[in-house]
Write a structure and sequence with these properties.
The chain contains 13 helices and 15 strands. It is of the alpha/beta class and 396 residues long. Helix 4 packs parallel to helix 5. The longest helix has 23 residues. Bound molecules: pyridoxal-5'-phosphate (PLP).
Length: 396
């Protein structure tokens, strides 16, 4: 059989909000847990199980320390989607006798919005807060939305499209004062900004490994055990793993990789984020030489590695086509098999459909280089200029 032709050239990867490559140091840490220490951490009768359990336990400690939590407060899941589902549906099911009102935000990831939509079909009442033009939630809007029957507020730490960092501490204290649980989806934030569940008054926090140079398929939910002790209804039933909150054999290799990835990111956070911010600002300066380019999201309260722009007067589809041989990135169009819709995040900022489609999300990361950033800036400028020239020409 003939092998399919492989491209000899791969575009520059600038899609780190979608996923990141696994850091080689993470791969190395994971390898012994496939064939050598392959035991089931739940096997308490022999050394194979003990070795796996010791590694899981060590990783749990690392991850807990990363957010100033206790190891028993970390529940491993398959990723942030599952962690969000467990947090939102788990709280709804455990607290419905106290109230059926949930508050979230229009710019959340679908892994938060869709569980909320689902709960609405079961009789829960969901408020989806708008955001300001810069993508931030207004505290006054949040306060106005809280009711005596509100049981949960879910607001993400860092947005996956526009990188905006929500004011978690200000939201947290308002929830805590009223006895309302506060969940945050920190999939884009862990390892990139400092997170302290106590300082932020966070009760539940979702994480994932693959946005921070760890493997796909592993994540965790932090569940507060003291002041207050959060009750949660499990969403996956079985062998009673993870204190009965999430059954299923633990994946030691994935868990060890997750902890290693977070540990590395936190150890180098200050320098790494400063480097990314420098590149991000340089990219922004260079693309701003084009007329009609707008920044999406707050100019400073954002992730260092994210730049999201809308470009006037170009077709979004043509723009991506023109760039895809050079750079791998995402646009403000969400494609399903049947139709393309403008990003709900950019729409919530008040962008028109055309500006939402004609947007680019640059996700910079650890393995990029300054030369790559310059190459991408140049390609964006050239492509936009030539598309504009082509559309200005009278059609024959
Ligand atoms: C990627 C992402 C998710 C989903 O995480 P998975 O681990 O892929 O399930 C959820 N929320 C945000 C903000 C994300 O960026």
């Amino acid at each position: 059989m003939k092998e399919a032709a492989r491209p000899i050239y791969r575009p520059i990867y600038l899609d780190c909000q979608a996923t990141t490559p696994v850091d080689p140091r993470v791969v190395e840490a994971m390898l012994p847990f496939f064939s050598e220490h392959f035991g089931n951490p739940a096997s308490i009768t022999h050394a194979y199980g003990w070795a796996a359990e010791a590694a899981v336990s060590q990783s749990r400690q690392t991850l807990a320390a990363a957010i100033h939590a206790e190891p028993e407060e970390i529940i491993f899941t398959s990723g942030a989607t599952e962690a969000n589902n467990l947090a939102i549906k788990g709280v709804a099911e455990a607290y419905f006798a106290q109230g059926k009102h949930i508050v979230t935000v229009q710019t959340e990831h679908h892994a938060v919005l869709d569980p909320c939509d689902y709960l609405e079909t079961l009789g829960f009442d969901v408020t989806r807060l708008p955001v300001q033009a810069d993508g931030l939630v207004a505290i006054a809007d949040l306060e106005a939305a809280l009711r005596p029957d509100t049981i949960l507020v879910s607001v993400m730490a860092a947005n996956n499209e526009i990188g905006v960092l929500q004011p978690l501490a200000e939201i947290g204290v308002r929830c805590r004062d009223r006895g309302i649980l506060f969940h945050t989806d920190a999939a884009q934030a862990i390892g990139k900004i400092p997170l302290d569940v106590n300082a932020l008054s966070v009760d539940l926090l979702s994480m994932t490994a693959h946005k921070v140079y760890g493997p796909k398929g592993i994540g965790a939910l932090y569940v507060r055990r003291r002041r207050p002790r959060v009750q949660l209804a499990p969403q996956i039933h079985g062998g009673g793993h993870e204190r009965g909150l999430r059954s299923g054999t633990l994946a030691p290799a994935q868990i060890v990789g997750f902890a290693k990835a977070v540990e590395l990111a936190i150890a180098t956070m200050a320098e790494e984020q400063a480097q990314l911010a420098t590149w991000r600002d340089r990219l922004w300066q260079q693309v701003q030489t084009l007329p009609g380019v707008r920044l999406n999201g707050h100019p400073t309260q954002r992730l260092a590695g994210n730049l999201n722009i809308s470009i006037e007067g170009v077709d979004g589809q043509a723009l991506l086509l023109g760039l895809r041989a050079i750079v791998a990135l995402s646009s403000g169009a969400a494609c399903s098999s049947t139709k393309t819709t403008p990003s709900h995040v950019l729409k919530a900022l008040g962008r028109s459909d055309a500006l939402a489609y004609a947007s680019l999300r640059f996700g910079l990361g650890r393995f990029n280089t300054a030369a790559e950033i310059d190459r991408v800036a140049e390609a964006v400028c050239e492509t936009v200029t030539s598309l504009r020239q082509a559309s200005a020409q009278p059609s024959r």
